[in-house]
Amino acid sequence: MKNFSVSQLFFVLISLVFIALSSCAERTLPVLSLPSEQIILSRGTVALVTRNYARVFALPDPQSVVIAPVRKGDIGLIQGADAGQSVVNRILDYWYEVRFEVKGGEIQGWIFGSDIELFSTQARAQSAAAQQTEPLQ
Is the pLDDT of residue 43 over 50? Predict the structure, then answer.
């Protein structure tokens, strides 16, 4: 076994302390900002209106301003969902932020989950809309 001098041991010890301290240096991590009131959608990204007439609201609240009505069979793209479920007319469901393309432009707002059905693709939503045979009231 080789004998080490005190100066060699001191150098090794100082080197190890330096390595340990330099690896503990403060690092700036990128800030990840997520919307605080939205959840990641796992049920679908396309909404099909299932009520004869449904209202699109400015906020996820039935007391907020109605942006526009949409009709049964209208298809929209989900932009997000409220983080928690709400009760509207004794029905527990989520609010969804949806963008609809309608005659004269585009509307985007919040619609209650019981007024829509969610699909993973636009083709599936269009197929379901074609099968809706109940007449408008």
Answer: yes
